[in-house]
Amino acid sequence: MSSETIKQEIQAGQTALGIELGSTRIKAVLIDSHFETIAAGSFTWENKFVDGIWTYPLKEVWQGLQSAYTELTNKIRAEYGVSVTQIGSIGVSAMMHGYLAFDKDGQQLVPFRTWRNNITGEAADQLTKLFNFNIPQRWSIAHLYQAILNQEKYVDQLDFMTTLAGYVTWQLSGEKVIGIGDASGMFPIDEQTHDYNAKMITQFESYTGVLGHNIKIRHLFPKVLLAGDRAGMLTAAGAKLLDATGTLQEGALMVPPEGDAGTGMTATNAVRKRTGNISAGTSAFAMVVLDKPLSQVHRDIDIVTTPDGAPVAMVHTNNCTSDINAWMGLFAEFAKATGQHLSADELYKTFFNESTKGDPDCGGVLNFSNVSGENITNIQEGRPLFVRTPNSNFTLANFIKAQLYSAFAPLKIGMDILTKKEHIHTDAMIAQGGIFRTPKIAQQVLADALDIPITLMANAGEGGPWGMAVLALYGLNNADHESLADYLDHQVFAQPESTTLDPVAANVQGFDDYIAVYQKALPVAVAAGDDIQDYQPSKQVKE
Predict the structure, then answer these.
(1) Residues 6+ away with beta carbon under 8 Å from 46
(2) Residues of the chain with CATH 3.30.420.40
(3) Partner of 398 for a Cys bridge, out of 269, 358, 460, 533, CB 3.0 to 4.6 A?
(4) Where does 97-162+187-220 sit in CATH, by number?
């Protein structure tokens, strides 16, 4: 598309804005009618561990959104010479699950409790038994029920609860709605009705009623919508929240807010049955769109949905790249101390490529990348560990390889349940995430870990906000009511750029050998969380 045509689409408001509030960055992407990125902006943020809770302050949500949006519009003004006054449609995505609770006046009752918290074990266990359906600790309903069990006084003031994407959409549009994929991380979804499971609602309300609470899920939770549904319009107040200059006008179509899993599926064209995708970042998750129900309840397998309501088996791990990023930061300091100034891409490329010289089983060195607790491996407190024996082959190559292996180790443990116990297979497994920016290295490790071919698309490094922008355009332009799967196949991914790597037998065996040692040593990682107190700088050190 020519620069002049793009300029005309910007001025006419024929664009779609995708927003994603991820674990480490808030991103905004504006796309044109051909799904091409016009401009993007981002804001870096980090969760904070405050009073035993992983959280983000909501005021930083709006600081970050405004910063990312300002960067985006500044780029457009510089390249095309126009201001963004109107947008065709807007979609908001964010980290799935978690807990945002508000009273009748819209006041936040407790700090945002993110997906990263492992504080709802008792509630999750009880609800799983009650529903005969796996309820993970990070799901919103587990947080609500744990608050009841903890006798937290605010519970009876609770008037509305939602996810982060649902909250931002509410503030931009005034509508208390949620996309079905994001909703499936709040409460179990009925595949037939495309709504919260009515039987389980009755079970929960009766269960909590015995405890003295009059909780009505349909009043408390946002309304469930499917991809393509209308979720309201951008209000004047909402436009001001995005664009503090007042340049952006109200009136953009809002589409159903989604979780990062839903945008990942969209960005990788993995919403059709027997397709799957893997997203690897601060956390990691694998999504497989099911063509048959699982034979039993598995505590390590979540059942969620695609943005259009198809059932998905999800393996979610709380930890993936954070430990690698921390080590790369340390090596960047070393490089700087020696007078070398390497970019992040240069640093990662150098180290990742070095890993290919390592032993298939990492030579007896072992890494646990648990910055936070990890449900799949039953680790309550995160204590990253690097362990070797006196006879380990301790080389830089094996050190880096062990970092990559441990990033995917919990994901492999969960995926083995699907592939080896449930015999679930996919026609395509597509990966995305920043760890794949260095060509082939992490892609090959993942293929070897799971023993399945892994495909990367050209947008593998930044799929989420673009995927949300695609959903926004789908809501704006799908007058023919084409299914989401057909829309992606025929219009978005008609000629996809992709590369596929097959597993290498020797490396598959090496990863299996590594994971056997890893699983046997898990009690060490558990004990580290139990016995090593989190570091708290003393007042003297701070001064």
Answers:
(1) 24
(2) 1-94+232-256, 97-162+187-220, 259-320+413-500
(3) 358
(4) 3.30.420.40
Model pLDDT, residue 458: 73
Alpha carbon separation from 163 to 100, 167, 243, 378, 415 (Å, rounded): 6, 6, 22, 25, 26
Residues (pLDDT < 70) of the chain are 459-462, 479, 538-543
Query: What is the model's pTM?
Result: 0.84
Torsion region of 35: left, alpha or beta (phi above 0 gives left; psi -120 to 50 gives alpha)? left
The single-letter code of the amino acid at 359 is D
> Tens of pLDDT along 5-26?
999 999 999 999 999 999 889 9
Distance of CA 252 to the CA centre of its chain: 25
In one-letter notation, the amino acid at residue 72 is L
Domain 259-320+413-500 is in which class?
Answer: alpha beta
CATH superfamily of 1-94+232-256: ATPase, nucleotide binding domain (3.30.420.40)
- For the chain, report the end-to-end CA distance as a whole number of angstroms: 57
The answer to whether residues 494 and 281 touch, using CB atoms and an 8 Å cutoff, is: no
Tell me the per-residue pLDDT of 180-193, one tens digit each, with 9 for 90 and over.
Answer: 999 999 999 999 99
